[in-house]
Amino acid sequence: MPAVVKQPHRKYCQFCKNDTKYIDYKDTQMLRKFVTDRGKIKPRRVTGCCTQHQRMVAQAVKRAREMALMPYAVSTVSNRGDRRHKRG
């Protein structure tokens, strides 16, 4: 009996599907889908965008950051520094 090889679902660019010509940097709600919780731009293999639209998304995110509509980085709470100060 041959092994069944399951093919992964092909991601389609949502911008190509909607025939989008321009990605607006002022639409921060839409741009947040393409940014991680730490503020980094997600890669193409994760977002499923085509090369052209991924470049447009990256440019829009960078413009939104420059205009202070989106943060460059999100502050994180860490307990790593506390280990040095504990004496027990």
Major sheet size, sense and barrel closure: none
Shape: flat
CATH architecture of one domain: Irregular
Counting DSSP H or I runs of 4 or more residues, the number of helices is 5
Fraction in beta strands: under 5%
In CATH, the homologous superfamily of one domain goes by the name Ribosomal protein S18
Order of helices and strands: HHHHH
Mean pLDDT across all residues, rounded? 87
Q: How much helicity do the residues have?
A: 25-40%
Radius of gyration: 19 Å
CATH classification class of one domain = Few Secondary Structures
CATH topology of one domain: 30s Ribosomal Protein S18
Low-confidence stretches: none
Account of the 3D structure:
Helix content is 36%, strand content 0%. It has a domain at 14-66: Ribosomal protein S18 (30s Ribosomal Protein S18, Irregular), CATH 4.10.640.10. The mean pLDDT is 87. The chain is built from 5 helices and no strands. The longest helix is centred in the middle third of the chain and has 16 residues, at 51-66. It is mostly helical. 12% of the residues are buried. It has helices at 14-17, 28-31, 44-47, 51-66, 82-85.
Keyphrases for this structure?
mainly alpha; 36% helix
How would you sum up this structure in a few lines?
The chain has 5 helices and no strands. The protein is mostly helical and 88 residues long.
Topology:
Layout: H1 14-17, H2 28-31, H3 44-47, H4 51-66, H5 82-85
